[in-house]
Design goal:
5 strands; 5 helices; Nucleotidyltransferase, domain 5; five-stranded mixed β-sheet; alpha/beta
């Protein structure tokens, strides 16, 4: 099944992949999912979420070598941006959920500091 998913991703002319972590044990153990966002499929799961864990993962390196995404969508984690910058010659996009959260947090802080 993974071969079929990868073949579909490879044949996509404007492949957009997503990188995001998920908790196995909140605050302790995280994994990273690499998704084909256009086709809604999971390309692979990598143990960990730190840059060193991603860049040295052999399975992920094989996928990096065969897919050529047009864009990579991810949260604002520095490890993901550093990994994507090195691994993929693609446009890096911060996902809207995290951007909206950071904007709202800062607007709320700004409103709390203002005196009306």
């Amino acid at each position: 099944m993974q071969t079929q998913v990868l073949d579909t991703a490879i044949s996509n002319s404007k492949l957009v992949i997503g990188i995001d972590d998920f908790a196995i044990r909140k605050g302790h153990t995280y994994n990273t999912g690499i998704h084909d966002l256009r086709n809604g499929t999971l390309l692979t799961v990598v143990l960990g979420r730190k840059y060193d864990e991603l860049i040295t993962n052999k399975n992920l390196r094989q996928i990096v070598d065969i897919v050529s995404p047009f864009a990579v969508v991810m949260d604002l984690a520095k490890s993901y941006h550093n990994f994507a910058k090195e691994a993929f010659p693609a446009i890096r996009i911060a996902d809207r959920f995290h951007v909206n959260r950071y904007i709202l947090t800062n607007l709320n802080l700004l409103n709390k500091t203002r005196s009306f």
